[in-house]
Amino acid sequence: xxxxxxxxxxxxxxxxxxxxxxxxxxxxxxxxxxxxxxxxxxxxxxxxxxxxxxxxxxxxxxxxxxxxxxxxxxxxxxxxxxxxxxxxxxxxxxxxxxxxxxxxxxxxxxxxxxxxxxxxxxxxxxxxxxxxxxxx
Amino acid sequence: xxxxxxxxxxxxxxxxxxxxxxxxxxxxxxxxxxxxxxxxxxxxxxxxxxxxxxxxxxxxxxxxxxxxxxxxxxxxxxxxxxxxxxxxxxxxxxxxxxxxxxxxxxxxxxxxxxxxxxxxxxxxxxxxxxxxxxxx
DNA sequence: AAAAGGACGCTCTTTAAAAGCATTGAGCCA
DNA sequence: TGGCTCAATGCTTTTAAAGAGCGTCCTTTT
Lengths: 136, 136
What we know:
Two copies of one chain form a homodimer.
Chain A: H1 3-8, H2 15-26, E1 32-33, H3 34-40, H4 50-63, E2 66-69, E3 77-80, E4 87-91, E5 97-100, H5 103-115, E6 118-131
Parallel strand pairs in A: 4-6
Antiparallel strand pairs in A: 1-3, 2-3, 4-5
Helix pairs in contact in A: 3-4
The first copy, chain A, binds a DNA duplex through residues 11-17, 33-35, 48-52, 54-56, 58, 74-76.
């Protein structure tokens, strides 16, 4: 995931885009809201306008570089799209997000869609709850 | 689902609340946004203020009378809570929503949560796609 | 190196949702 | 049943996330 990807998406390679991509790669939390990306770049000399962050993230989403999630809580969060589909567990206490993938569930979803004459293009499975103290 | 439920929720039985509940019961679409509820009551002599619709729906949600869903598309939708949990298939072409329930998936979710030391309090599974012409 | 069009930053706008406040009305009790 | 109290309503204003408009700047391409 580097400037080559930006170019292949038909976008010019600019400092804001490079920085935003890097933040998404290196941030400890792998799921960031637009505001969080913005704040992460505030320290950095040469901050990026919030409007640009929104614009770039939407462009990255369209280009397939990142995935936008609409979890509960109003703010959308973004993560790099590594091509490997996964679902999410969201801790309502700490905000921690853990990814998982389960082929049994995936297969059932495909079966159910088929039974209903439904052509699946995407799906979202989110588990809400709380991690044990030890895990959080 | 009637005025008794409203009262048991600790809310006064008022015309707006009764009307909103009835709309949710009788509307052909079982998933309505706040705006849709509002518009459904516009014909009706004695319209209800939009602010009241938002307020009442949130109160109903807190009281456990309705469930709020954050599907893609910005607007939250509401449905009566009949106590029977189910998931959703959302047609991206027509907006049609079909409910389903699958015990295999439910069980897998519980197993996965357990494996991760995660106490499940809620979950959302939404399949996005398109229904066949015949079904839509 | 220069031309051309996309990208940036700033500000303003949009939209869903909720808050504030004065008025109205439900519900309880004498 | 009539009145009293506090919750509920309607109207307006506000908030927050997200995006649009526009003038200037900077990538990119030749």
